[in-house]
């Protein structure tokens, strides 16, 4: 198994554990849903930033050729 797959499995397991912890925490449903919504929004923003950064890098590399 290569390193990329191992890392992906680790991240998936960590996310699963984090979601389980949030869902099982003694908090009201509204608060839990708000925390999940905010967490998903934060992750989406980070992914968008990484994709934008990678696209910019690719564009620069293509312009240099």
Class derived from helix and strand content: mainly alpha
State the shape. elongated
Total domain count: 1
Percent of residues in helices? over 70%
Question: In this structure, how is the largest beta sheet organized?
Answer: none
**Helix count, DSSP H or I runs of 4 or more residues:** 2
Question: Segments where pLDDT lies below 50 for 5+ residues?
Answer: none
SSE order in H/E notation? HH
Q: Could you tell me the number of beta strands?
A: 0
Tell me the radius of gyration.
17 Å
Task: Give an account of the 3D structure.
With 65 residues, the protein is an all-alpha fold. It has one domain (3-64). It has two helices and no strands. It has helices at residues 3-24, 29-64.
Summarize the structure.
The protein has 65 residues and is mainly alpha-helical. It has helices spanning 3-24, 29-64. It is elongated, with a radius of gyration of 17 Å.
SSE blueprint and pairings:
Blueprint: H1 3-24, H2 29-64
Main attributes of the structure:
single chain; elongated; mainly alpha; 2 helices; 0% strand; 65 residues
